[in-house]
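hi!! sorry for the late reply, been swamped w classes. u asked for the two structures so here they r. pasted raw, havent cleaned anything up. first the sequence of the first protein and right below it the tokens
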Amino acid sequence: MKIATYNVNGIRSRLPNLLEWLEREAPDIACLQELKSADRGFPIGAINDAGYGALWAGQTSWNGVAILAKGVDPVESRRGLPGDAKDTQSRYLEAMAHGVLVGCIYLPNGNPWPGPKFDYKLAWFERLLRHAQRLLDTGQAVVLAGDYNVVPTDEDIYDPKHWRRDALLQPESRDAYARLLAQGWTDALRERHPDERIYTFWDYFRQHWPRDRGLRIDHLLLAPVLAERLKDANVDRWVRDRPKASDHAPVWVELDMGTRKRSPAKKTATKKAAAKKAASKKAPARKA
């Protein structure tokens, strides 16, 4: 199973790129962020024609998230992050599809730092931490996918010194992300590429894309039951090179949803049991 996240940066203006990506890469589930469209402007007809069912939470000109599922309609479980009834920004959507519970995240950017937008970012992150722990405690197959607007470490950006005053690199942002991982989630892209400079976002300024001066801010976090099924994870960089591209590229994970992998301890116990059984067959029978 392939699950992806993609900040489209305007679904109506980037629709041709989105449809091309869906046809070429065919993810089973795709989380989209920054739709920048009211609900009525979501191109559900084109999405359906591409073979996908969809749920979406739009917002005029800003924010907006969606979950697409190949061949089925996602079953909504939550719209909006719990913890603040006054928060009306469309940044979180949760649904079940193909046996996996997916949370689609567009975490606040937080700039300018310091200021009220950064305070909102941290407060939103605390709500996410509480909800993520509840999801983890269920033991379900859960993926939290999206644009987290956090550069986890200096290894996740081309040159951190030029971004030190940006909300994406602040110690509080990084600490919140680290606490999320500490709950037991696996950062799939970093798990598969532990030592590689790998980016998901290149802004439109100063030729950052041609010069590969990027940031890693789009993440797919896997609950333990899925982390043990992780086969691969990567970035579809070719999408960032398309005409009128989003400043993000899609990120994806591939999961082995077949036979569940056994832990090393269970494998060792099974081997010992098999060896004992084989030895008993070879041993001569005792005379009465």
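now the second protein. again sequence first, tokens right under
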Amino acid sequence: MSAYEALPGVCHTGTDMPAQLTFAAPRRAKPPRHLADLSWDERREAVGALGEKPFRADQLSRHYFGRLADDPADMTDLPAAVRDRLITELMPDLLTPVRDLTCDGGATRKTLWKAFDGTFVESVLMRYPDRVTMCVSSQAGCGMNCPFCATGQAGLTRNLSTAEIVEQVVAGARALDRGEIAGGKGRVSNIVFMGMGEPLANFATIVRAIHRFSDPSPRGLGISQRNITVSTVGLVPKIHQLADLDLKVRLAVSLHAPDDELRDELVPINTRWKVAEVLDAAWEYADRTRRRISIEYALIRDINDQAWRADLLGRLIKTHPVHVNLIPLNPTPGSKWTASRPSDQTEFVRRLEAHGVPVTVRDTRGQEIDGACGQLAAKTVE
């Protein structure tokens, strides 16, 4: 995916209510430890603690990250007794698929997962002629409370573990490797943290997941960090922390309004960190990483799609390395808002381009299966 290209399909949009500016998820039982939770050295230590030779960790890693194996019977280089114990201790089942919904001739697939504690989350795989993008969830639900987002309105259940995040992508990679997705065999090339949840509210976990995605096989999946995007509604201190880590992931800021008055309503965390603070943090991230910032902007009819707001946005960002990704608002149950008129969308684009700002209108892929931007709600019934 080009740095200037729209991020297709699903996005996250959400934020804690102003009176609840703690980002901790409710206290719940922790998921069982999994190989993907552990760094390379930690895996070897864990295997050693089980009384096995450290090289067994290398073998497990090769099966999970390299061969994408999920059947212990295929791990024939591990003696049966050793294999059963290691699988039980380091490769427990974390996410069970409940339902797959497809559209676009099978090229888009949304999966509803049930976690060990009965929590439901969703991920989406989107296949294009030149790439395959996995949209992953970092939390079950979202505490950000953006009123136009189904996930945000559902509230936050808990943070996902590193392995629960990684397993969403590994499962998609398996399906591609086995030719189960329309278009034949393939591989995951792009990852976007734009599913359920606010990624930076689960900061340490998503950083570990990024390393599992980008570390070379068999340490990880070997996906370039430049093909990984982290989306945020604007947790300013966490953006600064991310910049300090010397990662090469792209940052996407879910802005949705260029003025504080409206953004306070659309993105409630704006009452804590205003538009100027969020953008300043984004520009620092761009300067530190040499990556363009993606500004995510859901176009809502008669709410934030006025031409003067396009001009204001253009003036705010035109001198910075940025790309605007306009998102026609996707329908969610009970929402009082809808997508902009085509004429207003066209004028919004024209105004931004007049300021010299690169802009793309995101497609609505997955809308018919509630798999598009802002639609993920982990519904268990249709």
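hope this helps!! also noticed smth abt the second:
The two ends are 33 Å apart (CA to CA).
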